[in-house]
Design a protein that fits this description.
This protein has 267 residues and is of the alpha/beta class. It contains nine helices and 14 strands. The strands form three sheets. A six-stranded mixed β-sheet has the order 8-7-6-9-11-10, covered by helices on one side. A five-stranded parallel β-sheet has the order 2-1-12-13-14. Helix 2 runs parallel beside helix 9 and helix 4 runs antiparallel to helix 5. It is globular, with a radius of gyration of 18 Å.
């Protein structure tokens, strides 16, 4: 078989809500045992990717923050790291602080959570910290901002996108609840560029990788990989960019495609 690795999105792809279905776990362990590298490729943060890897039983470079970070646990450091521009971050924080929204902002090894009302700390992962406002909450620039809220979404599209679209990626993606999340990264970051970095680090060509995803920010890695699989519930643009379409994420579509790949060498 010409394929040597799988690069797999999490929300809406490998996960159902916050969980990895057992069929997906079984299929990915079989792929691992067949010699395929497993690369998590998510809009979420490093620690989340590592928890999924632990459940599957794999460890390798992880593409996180919608392609703004590639972290290698063997080295204990990033091999790719891009941050949002400082002026954009300042303007984004001002809008988010002025509006009702849910914002998760990944900075260094922490995730800032801004929402109205302090959540139960026991319900949050250890790397997440609730903040009443984003301005002044952390001195480092974010790798990715994930924003929910219809009014704040509209303001970002109308006020920030026209001014910053040459330096910032503005993507609609799907969160664990199935709601649309506005995902924002530096224009220098994408899952495609991050996959190229991860492949070079592993001594692979992107043509030897099968990619899996369900949303707009997965298309860049679809374009450079040898084969690509869109989930059954993905939008039509994402499906059209893939070389194959599998079942929905809540029907273990990743498992069905991996099973076919291991049996036939094709997706």
């Amino acid at each position: 078989m010409r394929f040597k690795a799988l690069a797999i999105d999490l929300d809406g792809t490998l996960l159902v809500g916050e969980e990895v279905p057992e069929d997906n776990v079984t299929a990915l362990r079989a792929a691992r045992d067949a010699g395929l590298a497993i690369i998590i490729a998510t809009a979420r943060w490093k620690q989340m990717a590592q928890r999924v890897e632990a459940k599957i039983g794999t460890q390798g470079p992880a593409i996180t923050c919608s392609g703004a970070q590639v972290y290698d646990p063997a080295l204990g450091r990033d091999i790719f790291d891009e941050r949002l521009p400082e002026d954009f971050t300042r303007d984004l924080y001002a809008i988010c602080d002025a509006e009702r929204c849910v914002a998760t902002i990944t900075v260094e090894d922490r995730v800032l959570l801004k929402l109205d009302g302090q959540p139960d700390p026991a319900a949050m992962p250890p790397e997440m910290r609730w903040v009443p406002k984003l301005d002044g909450a952390d001195p480092s620039l974010p790798r990715v901002a994930n924003i929910q809220g219809s009014h704040v979404y509209q303001r970002i599209r109308e006020e920030l996108k026209p001014r910053y679209q040459d330096r910032v990626h503005f993507f609609d993606s799907i969160g664990p609840s199935g709601k649309v999340i506005y995902t924002l990264t530096s224009a220098k970051a994408s899952k495609g560029k991050a996959l190229e970095t991860a492949c070079a680090h592993l001594g692979l060509s992107p043509d030897e990788v099968v990619t899996f995803g369900d949303a707009e920010n997965d298309i860049e890695m679809f374009r450079i990989s040898g084969a690509s699989v869109a989930m059954g519930q993905a939008d039509e643009r994402t499906k059209a960019a893939a070389t194959a379409v599998t079942a929905r994420n809540d029907e273990a579509g990743v498992a069905r495609a991996v099973e076919k790949l291991l049996a036939t060498g094709q997706v």
